Amino acid sequence: MSDPQPTPDGAQGQKSPKETLDPLLAEFYNLRSYGETLRQQLEMTQGILTEFSMSKAALEEIKKRDGKSETLIHIGAGNYIRTQLQDVKTVVVGIGAGVSIEKSVDDAIAEIDQRVRQAQQQMGTLQNQYMQVTGRMQQLQGRIDELYSQAEQGKA
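and the corresponding structure tokens:
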């Protein structure tokens, strides 16, 4: 083992507040960046859950009306066309990577339910990670404030 190195003020073994502060600040800024990424993922997952909810509600309404009803179809830029559904028995369901398959309305609803469960599980994991990150950031903030105070007292 090596002997403790003297600090700039001549003391041995003790890190100055500045030497202790630098790695804490680096960790704090990294956590802040990671926390922002987690927050964005939470927002995206919430948006996905909202979309699933709307899709499921539409499919359940079609099922309730035996696949026959009038509806509006969104054609983009806030524009819709009115159309009459005729005996809807299947739905084209995206399964990922740009691939879609045809499923019954009941199977499509079941698929949405499964995806909702997965998204909710992901949401819980993200929320847990976000809480851990913000908790650690609060701990670091307290220690950083303490070290800044010590550094200021050392200058006085």
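(Above: one complete record from the training split.) The mean pLDDT is 88.
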